[in-house]
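Whiteboard transcription, Tuesday session. T.W. wrote the structure tokens on the left side:
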């Protein structure tokens, strides 16, 4: 059964009796409710504040503050009016910060721009930027104070930097000016020393004093180095002194060379160049050795008269610059030689020009010298100018070259290469096919001479291969062409590489088509050569096979016939009954050359013990037997009688070669020697003052000084 609990009263305590307070439970309950409501309100309010702040921040961030007036000043934009106070304040803070940041950018950029406009001018910058700051403060409204603070910061920074740059710039200017002063002083002293005129400040004594003031202790160089030591290394004073000494003593060397010129002119005008060159080389030797003791006594005495001796070589500081001075002398010597050669070449061209004007035959080398001076140094450059030369023979501009090419002497080398080298001919024609008739015309005109109303072929230094080649080309151009010139050359090259068996087969077919038994039969029939003329038959045979292969028997026959007439001529003074390709009339076709050759023949005949003009008649009982080994350009002959028996003296045959004619040609070239010597002497005398200008162009001591400046610290 359930237990029945008894009600138990409160225990009795013995305590004092106090005031009995009524219960406050209800009040506390009401307070609790009130606090809960307040907390909920606060939480709701704070959330709204946060929301409004975020709204304000978003608004401030999204506002366009890059609005500018016509002067590009920022236009301050108001906060939108619809915002709550909380949002407005948040937005304004963002906008204020953005405006101040943009002001900072504007003022920084303006400072940078004005700095470029006032380089090395801090005062000008300060004035301009201060004006800008004041204008900005006026337009910045409530941001004026910030604008002023920002501007003053940039103003201070840039003024300080510009002031430092100005000082650096002014120091650089001072450095340059000081350096230029030293440079100019060195150059002036060197120039005056090289040609002293003993006037005013330009005396030996005054120049020595100026030089001493430059290099002495605490002189110009030391003062400059002390002032600009931060820009110059510790060795620069020594280097500058070295440069000064090189210039000063170098000027003395120039003066020596000029006086040596005059000295040599007095001693031997016609040997002046050799004397000067010799003494300059001895000067170089003495400079490198530091003494004149090893020089020949005569040279030593001559140089002593000009002030070049051991005393000169032992001047203070000379030891360090002797090699430099020796190099300068070498340059002077080289310049002298260069100018001498130029003058000599000019005189040579003038001499050749006079021979051309007077229609005097030129040697091949003379002709080439004249062409080379005009830029026609080789076959290709001649080919470029050939059309104008051939088409304008009377034009003063081209007439000298026309006379050279169409003269009687040996062709210049460039012309021989152009006409005689088949590879070159192919190149020229391949580049310009129109050149083929021009070259053909050139060959015919250049190798044809008029003799007593008839024309005669003159090779003018070209070999027989060239004759065959151009006869081949003439036959090609005069025939019905089955191929263009390029194909013709290609075929020629192809046939040259053809195996011998195939070559023989093709030749045989051509001979059969022409009713010839063989090549010898072909040659005899188409040329009419005497079957006993073995020399001509052998010569023509060396070309016949190739001509037949390329052109066929008809055209080849025409080429061989023309070649036979051009190369082989009848000559009464030659031994034998057949035409010859060694006629002296062809080899020696210049003015007076045949007479010189005939005299040489007589000189040989006079060696005969029983010589008499009645016993020996050139062309009747005295004949020439050519030595084929010497060729036809500079032939050699044995003197024989009508039976071909050589004339003998002391067991040796009488031989006449080309040497007398070559000596005659040389004499003709040198016949104006006295005139040339006078011209040379005059030219030498006009060159007495050339050394200064030339040497200054080659030896510029200032280059060392420029290098010194380039290496100086803080100056580039």
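and on the right, the sequence the group agreed on:
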């Amino acid at each position: 059964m359930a237990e029945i609990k008894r009600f138990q009263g409160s225990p009795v305590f013995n305590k004092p009796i106090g005031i009995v307070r009524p219960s406050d439970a209800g009040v506390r309950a009401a307070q609790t409710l009130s606090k809960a409501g307040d907390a909920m309100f606060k939480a709701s309010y704070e959330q709204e504040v946060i929301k409004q702040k975020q709204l304000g921040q978003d608004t401030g961030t999204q506002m366009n503050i890059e609005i500018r007036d016509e002067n590009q000043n920022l236009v301050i934009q108001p906060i939108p009016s619809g915002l709550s106070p909380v949002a407005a304040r948040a937005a304004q803070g963002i906008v204020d910060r953005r405006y101040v940041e943009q002001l900072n950018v504007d003022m920084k950029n303006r400072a940078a721009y004005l700095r470029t406009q006032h380089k090395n001018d801090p005062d000008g910058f300060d004035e301009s930027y201060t004006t800008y700051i004041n204008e900005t403060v006026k337009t910045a409204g409530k941001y004026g104070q910030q604008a002023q603070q920002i501007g003053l910061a940039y103003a201070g920074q840039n003024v300080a930097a510009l002031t430092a740059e100005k000082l650096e710039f002014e120091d650089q200017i001072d450095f340059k000016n000081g350096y230029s002063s030293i440079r100019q002083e060195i150059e002036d002293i060197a120039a005056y020393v090289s040609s002293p005129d003993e006037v005013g400040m330009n005396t030996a004594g005054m120049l020595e004093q100026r030089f001493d003031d430059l290099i002495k202790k605490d002189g110009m160089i030391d003062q400059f180095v002390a002032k600009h030591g931060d820009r110059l290394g510790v060795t620069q004073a020594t280097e500058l002194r070295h440069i000064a000494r090189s210039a000063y003593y170098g000027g003395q060397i120039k003066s020596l060379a000029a006086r040596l010129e005059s000295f040599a002119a007095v001693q031997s005008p016609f040997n002046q160049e050799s004397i000067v060159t010799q003494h300059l080389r001895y000067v170089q030797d003495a400079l490198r050795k530091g003494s004149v003791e090893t020089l020949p006594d005569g040279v030593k005495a001559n140089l002593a008269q000009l002030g070049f001796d051991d005393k000169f070589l032992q001047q203070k500081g000379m030891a360090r610059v002797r090699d430099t001075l020796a190099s300068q002398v070498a340059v002077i010597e080289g310049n002298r030689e260069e100018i001498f050669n130029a003058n000599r070449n000019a005189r040579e061209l003038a001499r050749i020009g006079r021979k051309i004007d007077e229609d005097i035959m030129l040697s091949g080398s003379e002709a080439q010298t004249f062409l080379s001076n005009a830029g026609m140094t080789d076959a290709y450059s001649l080919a470029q100018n050939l059309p104008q030369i051939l088409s304008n023979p009377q034009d003063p501009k081209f007439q000298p070259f026309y006379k050279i090419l169409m003269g009687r002497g040996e062709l210049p080398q460039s012309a021989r290469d152009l006409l005689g080298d088949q590879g070159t001919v192919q190149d020229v024609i391949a580049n310009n096919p129109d050149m083929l008739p021009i070259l053909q015309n050139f060959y015919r005109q250049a190798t044809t001479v008029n003799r007593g109303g008839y024309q005669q072929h003159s090779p003018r230094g070209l070999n027989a291969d060239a004759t065959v080649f151009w006869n081949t080309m003439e036959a090609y151009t005069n025939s019905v062409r089955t191929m263009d010139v390029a194909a013709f050359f290609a075929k020629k090259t192809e046939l040259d590489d053809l195996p011998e068996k195939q070559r023989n087969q093709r030749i045989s077919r051509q001979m059969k088509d022409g009713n010839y038994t063989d090549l010898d039969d072909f040659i005899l029939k188409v040329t009419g050569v005497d079957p006993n003329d073995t020399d001509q038959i052998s010569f023509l045979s060396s070309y016949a096979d190739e001509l037949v292969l390329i052109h066929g028997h008809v055209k080849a026959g025409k080429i061989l016939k023309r070649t036979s007439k051009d190369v082989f001529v009848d000559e009464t003074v030659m031994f034998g009954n057949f035409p010859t390709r060694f006629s002296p009339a062809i080899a020696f076709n210049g003015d007076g050359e045949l007479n010189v050759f005939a005299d040489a023949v007589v000189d040989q005949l006079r060696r005969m013990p029983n010589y008499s003009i009645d016993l020996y008649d050139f062309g009747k009982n005295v004949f020439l037997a050519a030595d084929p080994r010497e060729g036809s350009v500079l032939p050699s002959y044995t003197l024989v009688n009508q039976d071909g028996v050589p004339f003998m003296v002391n067991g040796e045959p009488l031989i006449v070669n080309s040497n007398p004619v070559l000596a005659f040609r040389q004499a003709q070239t040198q016949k104006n020697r006295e005139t040339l010597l006078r011209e040379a002497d005059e030219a030498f005398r006009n060159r007495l003052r050339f050394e200064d200008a030339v040497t200054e162009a080659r030896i510029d001591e200032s280059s060392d000084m420029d290098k010194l400046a380039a290496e100086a610290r803080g100056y580039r």
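Someone added at the bottom: The CA atoms of residues 192 and 202 lie 6 Å apart.
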